[in-house]
Sequence to fold (230 residues):
Amino acid sequence: MIPLKDDIELSRPAVATVALIAVNVLAFAWQVLGPGVNLSVQQGGAIPYEILTFNDVAPPDLVPPPLTILTSMFLHGGLLHIGGNMLFLWIFGRAVEVALGPARFLAFYLVSGVAAAISQTVLSSFSGDLLTPMVGASGAIAGVLAAYMVLFPRARVLTLVPIFFFIRLMYLPAFFFIGAWFLLQLLSAMYSAGGSGVAFFAHVGGFLAGLVLVRLLRRRPRYHAPHAPW
Fold:
């Protein structure tokens, strides 16, 4: 299923979401035009061994580990990778930003991404796959999806749905679309053989972090004391 747009009318521009997309696109342009995608992933990706030991492995990282968790969130492994992530961030991030406010949204996004990387690192420590770098905004965006589901469960998402050899456009409730997405990530994390190259546990960790964080950061209505009867 590919989301195309939602039906929420925003009360103001989502400047933080646009800024995040711009930074990701610029970072990918640097990857392609600079060191190349493969080398940049090694230099700026979050490598579980480095995060656990605080030791850099060749080639030298852009920043000392474990700060590579932050750089990894803005690097991608290819055009389809960044294209899909930015599509999801554009569709679901703007409404969440307007609900939280730009500063809280940025904090929410970064913390979700860090939680996602830590989740994948923990899994890698058990599986023994400690040298495969993680890159991509997927973990942080998973947190955004969780926040969207909590804040706008009845919103409708125009979705491109392939049905056998046919493609249909239909509006799906946000709760159903995101719930189905999370279930797919969870099943993939549990039953993936590990060779897919996708950090499914990062998606699960980012989503669960988002469920918790949105309840801590969302704005609460102000309380107005009732007028005294006298």
Remarks:
- Residues 221-230 have pLDDT under 50 and may be disordered.
- The longest strand covers residues 156-163.
- The chain has nine helices and three strands.
- The longest helix spans residues 102-127.
